[in-house]
Amino acid sequence: MNDLEITPKVLLEVIRCWECGRWWALEKGIAGTCPSCAERKIKAANGRADAAERSARASRGAATRARQR
Ligand SMILES: [Zn+2]
Fold first, then answer.
1. Global pTM?
2. How far is the CA of 32 from the centre of ligand 1 (A)?
3. How far is the centre of ligand 1, averaged over its atoms, from the C-alpha of 7 (Å)?
4. pLDDT tens for each residue of 35-47
5. Is 10:27 a contact under the CB 8 Å cutoff?
6. What are the residue ranges spanned by the domains of the chain?
């Protein structure tokens, strides 16, 4: 049995994030967002989703209480 070992040659483009100032790299020719800022944005979006869920639950509860009266 012969093993085949392939070492890919990947050309990376180093990019400076203008939001947080970090240097990060991505394959050349592909657009992306700084991973650190992307994670921050995902956390913020999840926080907003949780708040919306809480507020929806609260208004459903208020509607139920209003109907019971
Ligand atoms: Zn960033």
1. 0.59
2. 11
3. 30
4. 999 999 999 999 9
5. yes
6. 33-69
